[in-house]
Amino acid sequence: MPERTTAPISPGNPDDDWDSTTDVEDHHPSTALPSGSDSGEQTDETEDHHRQIRHEKQTKHSGLPDTKRDYKLVEFAEGDPENPMNWSKAYKWWCTMVVAVTCFAVAFCSSVITADVGSVAKEFDVSYEAALVPITVFVVGFGVGPMIFAPLSEVYGRQIIYASTLLVAVIFVIPCAVSQNIGTLIVCRLIDGIAFSAPMTLVGGTLADLWRNEERGVPMAAFSAAPFIGPAIGPLVGGFIADGAGWRWLYWIQLIISFVVWVLITFTVPETYAPTILARRAKKLRKSTGDPDHVTEADLDPRPFSERMRVFLIRPFQLLFREIIVLLISLYMSVLYGLLYMFFVAYPIVFEKRKQWSKSMAGLMFIPIAVGVVLAAFCAPWVNGHYLKMVKKHNGKPPAEVRLIPMMLSCWFIPIGLFIFAWTSYKDLIWVGPCLAGLPVGFGFIFLYNAANNYLVDSYQHQAASALAAKTFIRSFWGAATVLFTEQMYDRLNDQWASTLLAFISLACCAIPFLFWQYGARIRAKSKYAFGGDEDPALDSDVEKGRKPPHHDMEDLRRAMSYVSNP
Fold first, then answer.
1. What global pTM score does this model have?
2. What residue spans define the domains of the chain?
3. Name one GO molecular function term (predicted).
4. What is the mean pLDDT of residues 447-469?
């Protein structure tokens, strides 16, 4: 290993040694960027900012007045073997597949129990609606968990969050499998939902840690289908398990699968989050050299974690109720998420209750949804290629509305599939119609979801994590609620008109991407929170008024990477 040197930071002239440390005094520091960020995205700090940092750090640690102090910034050098982006391609693909399989397993666990709700109601002597509550609270946990685990991962890294939360999830599957009352099932499923949400929250960020922008298309395409295939495969496998072994084995299979992925991700995937890796390097350097001035970019942020956590919890709701873009996109994604979970109730109604099929046969009807998702994943590189052309056309700075193009093209697939499902689901008609209706629905889901996430990230770059957190929160609660009233809706409106109502709702939502295509730029121009360009001041939330700390441009984008792929 080359000997470490200390040199002033010079943008575009990084050190060549692996321990790359730089003197932050009187120079612009190169931000310790998250993996997946280009060097051109680095944040520049002003000289006054540096004086403020020196003052605050000295006051905090030594109580001394404002005196001159040099910090040695620890960052990755070019070709650094500890940088996850420089790992071998084979190992990066291994890590990618492990986190993708983990994501699939979590999505599978969310839906597999929908295959046999009736047996739970019968054994515990509760209503069918009460037996649906374990499904509902699991989805609620999916909305609550990211609000906790995303900021925690910034402090402790991704690996420890993966390992600890999956272990909790594995443990609390066991009481579900042996439960003797509905209360135990509900409480443990809620805990599982919160714990299982962590991998779904962090997996997108892990891929951004591993792959550079120009390399990320195929890995993201391979991964992006996992959160949507899982819910489709769950009822399929669950139907055969329920018919052959009973409803409790729907939980034992979750235990087996979740334990396997816990072992894989805990013992074969190391830490990939750049700030955490650099923090460990800085700590090691301070210990080996006795020099306390080895720091990372995160160390130079004087804000306490409690303040950052408070902002992270409050800002999503500010955006949700003050930003029409966030509100309408969140409502649209909530409708889609609700439709996905409605299918878990509607399919058993149509195929089991009306057509008198077995659970295993009814589960086969979810295959076209999975096929549609896979087809959409294969189209993802084409969509990415088109976006890169638009980037070039706009000299590297395309408007956020370019992200709406896939959304405007694919939004029609959802209502088309629902109309087909509605009017071919008669008891005496052949099964082909309602079965194949899932194909366009699955195809549209993934296109719409990815496009919506990208539009929010591009529109609210400095506030992107908060915008996506708002969407995740409202979407999860709506998805949880729809499970509880779907059966009553189908009983009162009949199968055809209940599905038609859903089709018209999704058809009305098709106006949203066209609305923002026409007026989105004007809305963002008047917005207090929307990103306005490289020099955008990105006004802080009300929580921060009166004491505005230094803002790191990439901080919210680091968080946002964790949400982009969260289904």
1. 0.76
2. 6-82+273-304
3. transmembrane transporter activity
4. 81
